[in-house]
Specification:
Layout lengths: L3 E10 L7 E10 L2 E7 L8 E4 L3 E5 L1 E3 L20 H12 L4 H17 L2 E8 L8 H11 L2 E8 L18 H15 L11 E4 L7 H14 L3 E5 L3 H11 L3 H7 L7 E5 L5 H10 L2 E4 L1 H6 L7 H7 L2 E4 L12 H16 L6 H15 L16 E5 L11 H7 L7 E4 L2 E5 L2 E2 L4 H16 L1
Parallel strand pairs: 1-4, 1-5, 6-7, 7-8, 8-9, 10-11, 11-12, 12-13
Antiparallel strand pairs: 1-2, 2-3, 5-14, 14-15, 15-16, 16-17
């Protein structure tokens, strides 16, 4: 792999310890790693030069929560205007007809959408495995697209006949779940710096798995030294279920089962109270904030300002494309900022803080101290944003404009120093052909 010099950017946003922003900055990539950041860097012999005049260069965005399989069920009638539980009951029967092809192709489309929105590292929460589908299908899709990937082996074990929300056809026996968790960690998890794939364990939610499975999964994850992920305190229905079934709030439920700590991150957390925020801060438990999905499902506004002020690690997530219904991580940055301002005032969150949450914040939530910033030794995951176009014409501050104005699509995207997007186009897939296949599968499901 030859060296790459990204040269003369309008601004390089480093997200380093000092949060340096370098006007007229350069970034040198060597062997998949950031070798140097500065001004006027010399061009190494044989290096490729990427001109970045009129562009902001940032760390790649990090997505901390997704359900890639849902990209095949956007804007489904019957679920468009429902709250969380009603929405799930509409979608469960459709998802039960999925198989390996549906899971693989929907992951390809979702990952391509993320890449075009500037995302270099994404997690995924796959919690149902109908008709032979496996976590392996999403891992194969990520390898084709070229994004750094943190899939989580989810699960549902309590069906409707036992008081859970999902239909019995979509749940698995808990022994089989634990066995497959061991299999996927042993087969795919890479703990080394620079890993392209790390695996987490992720029982779906308090209303779809048993307390025993939550406990056993936590024990297994710590034995295997992998991270834990689930949904928590997503809306009022979620909290009411926890109080009725377990006699405690979601934060206490998580703490009792060993689901707090540096190796845990929870999705949504819209309804955390002050005591739960304090618990997460003390235990270094992370949160995946999904602003667009929370709006779409009417779940509420997560207390991100209070979490950040307390020291809780917060990243962004697009959530599933059946509840967003988009997968644009750049749009989540803006929405996260706007929701905190709607709730608390115009000074509640700056554009730069939103960008920090979307980059460094997400990397910290996923335990990736090798990603999330542009500094020598960090992985060469970066986005080049053209801020010379229509969306930002007249903008005085190009970094703030990236969040406030756009553009909605990245110009160039590098992951481990390899180009995934060039000139606003995916380089790793025949995207029109993948979209055609996705549309065909969606039509078959709808019929």
């Amino acid at each position: 792999m030859s060296d790459i010099l990204i040269r003369k950017a309008a601004v390089v946003v480093t997200m380093n310890t000092a949060r340096d922003e370098i006007a007229g900055g350069d970034v040198l990539i060597r062997g998949g790693v950031v070798a140097a950041v500065g001004q006027g860097l010399a061009v190494p012999a044989g290096a490729e030069v990427v001109e970045a005049a009129g562009c902001v260069v940032s760390p790649g965005l990090v997505n901390t929560h997704h359900h890639l399989f849902q990209t095949l069920t956007r804007a489904v009638p019957g679920g468009q205007d429902a709250l969380l539980f009603g929405w799930l009951k509409t979608l469960y029967p459709i998802w039960s007809r999925f198989g390996p092809d549906e899971v693989f192709v929907s992951a390809q489309v979702g990952l391509a959408e993320l890449a075009l929105s500037g995302c270099t590292l994404t997690s995924d929460h796959l919690y149902l495995f109908p008709n032979g589908a496996r976590l392996d299908d999403t891992i194969a899709a990520a390898a084709e697209v070229g994004l750094r990937f943190h899939p989580t082996r989810g699960a549902m074990s309590i069906g409707a006949s036992s008081g859970g929300l999902p239909p019995d056809a979509l749940v698995e026996a808990e022994a089989a779940i634990l066995n497959d968790m061991v299999r996927v960690v042993d087969a795919f998890h890479d703990p080394r710096p620079g890993a392209m794939v790390r695996v987490g364990l992720a029982p779906c939610s308090p209303f779809s798995v048993s307390r025993a499975l939550m406990r056993e999964t936590a024990v297994l994850a710590r034995d295997k030294r992998v991270r834990l992920h689930t949904h928590l305190a997503e809306n009022d229905e979620d909290v009411a279920y926890s109080l009725a079934q377990f006699g405690c709030r979601p934060g206490q439920y998580a703490e009792d089962l060993g689901w707090v700590g540096e190796d845990v991150w929870h999705a949504h957390c819209v309804k955390l109270d002050a005591a739960e925020i304090g618990l997460f801060a003390r235990t270094a438990t992370g949160v995946a904030h999904c602003p667009c999905s929370n709006c779409r499902l009417g779940s509420g506004i997560a207390p991100v300002r209070a979490m950040r002020d307390a020291g809780v690690r917060v990243g962004l997530g697009v959530d599933g494309s059946a509840s967003n219904d988009a997968g644009n991580l750049a749009a989540e940055m803006r929405q996260a900022m706007l929701l905190q301002r709607v709730s608390l005032g115009a000074d509640a969150m700056s554009a730069r803080e939103a960008l920090e949450i979307a980059t460094l914040g997400g990397a910290q939530v996923l335990g990736r101290d090798d990603c999330g910033s542009l500094a020598p030794g960090r992985r060469a995951d970066l986005a080049v944003w053209d801020v010379s176009g229509l969306e930002t014409a007249g903008a005085w501050d190009p970094v703030a404009a990236l969040v406030l104005c756009g553009p909605p699509r990245v110009r160039d995207l590098f992951v481990e120093g390899r180009p995934v997007v060039r000139g606003g186009q995916i380089t790793t897939l025949d995207l029109p052909r993948v979209i055609e296949r996705q549309v065909r599968l969606a039509r078959t499901l709808a019929a």
